[in-house]
Write a structure and sequence with these properties.
single chain, about 15% strand, two-stranded antiparallel ribbon
Length: about 300
């Protein structure tokens, strides 16, 4: 039986180690290749998550805002900017045929003042106007060189170069436009526009729901106030009919109802007899006020008498 040489044994072990190393390399590189193939899918999933997170934030603010439309608009602007990787955002709402500034996010103070004073007509001169005119998302790759863009100096105040305008469509008409800008030459891509379009549709629903709920609450408040006033009037009329010739309970009832309707803490009522004022009723008046009235009313009596002579 032949014995293997030590050199041969070393070469065999070296080959084995090399083979094991190659196998390990294959195991390590295979998942990496798989991860590279999954990158586009992961990117789409991340974008979807960002969109869902942005909309969830808007819905959360709505639930906490007590129907405050301004709060919702400001959060929509913030969420749109984050979603589309813009440096700032504005929202202009349609009002009497023109678009007026409604909310903004992350704007240079000087530019914010410009936007607050600006009224925009549908037309190609601004990103908001173009979106309002076309009813579609519009993209301006570089506002500083765009031949139709009329607000170049204003854009330079903010530093905006690349922009998009996203209309919010209700019943076929743009009722608002979200304007997004980047303080760099970095044109928005198709996937940004797709995200902005989807977000705008969802944001419009949120804004409209808030507006309708606010109007419903306001209408309910108005009805409650009207009913309270009618009830107060009926109570006073009842007291008048039950107290013929006695005005003191009538004055007291009128004052009590007035204090209640106005949500006041106290009140006083004076009647004028043609020459002087006389205290007719008092409700929860502080002691200091009562003492003050005692000192002032006689003076008022004398003053009125002098003026009428």
């Amino acid at each position: 039986m032949k014995r293997r040489s030590k050199a041969g044994g070393k070469r065999s072990k070296a080959r084995i180690r090399a083979a094991v190393a190659r196998m390990g390399t294959r195991r390590r590189t295979a998942p990496a290749c798989k991860a590279e193939k999954e990158t586009p899918l992961k990117r789409e999933l991340n974008r979807a998550r960002e969109q869902q997170a942005a909309m969830s934030d808007v819905l959360r603010i709505i639930s906490q805002s007590k129907f405050e439309l301004q709060t919702v608009l400001e959060h929509v602007a913030r969420a749109a900017a984050r979603l589309c990787r813009s440096d700032g955002a504005v929202i202009f709402q349609l009002e009497n045929g023109l678009y007026r500034f409604a909310a903004g996010f992350s704007l240079v103070p000087a530019y914010l003042e410009i936007e607050r004073r600006t009224l925009i007509s549908p037309g190609p001169g601004t990103v908001v106007g173009r979106a309002a005119m076309t009813g579609k998302v519009v993209r301006i790759d570089d506002a500083w060189t765009d031949p139709l863009y009329e607000k170049k100096e204003d854009a330079k105040v903010e530093g905006n170069r690349s922009m998009i305008g996203v209309p919010l469509i209700r019943d076929g008409h743009p009722v608002a436009v979200i304007g997004l800008g980047r303080r760099r030459l970095d044109p928005f891509e198709d996937h940004d526009i797709k995200l902005a379009t989807t977000f705008a549709a969802q944001a419009l629903i949120a804004i409209e729901n808030t507006r309708l709920l606010f109007e419903l609450r306001q209408r309910s408040t108005d009805l409650s106030e009207a009913l309270e006033q009618q009830t107060a009037t009926a109570d006073v009329l009842h007291i008048i009919s039950s107290s013929p010739g006695n005005l003191e309970p009538v004055f007291q009832a009128i004052l009590e109802k007035a204090v209640s309707i106005c949500d006041a803490k106290f009140g006083t009522l004076f009647r004028f007899d043609g020459s002087a004022f006389h205290l007719a009723a008092r409700v929860n008046a502080p002691t200091a006020l009562a003492e003050f009235q005692k000192s002032v009313v006689p003076f008022c009596h004398r003053r009125v008498a002098t003026l009428t002579e």
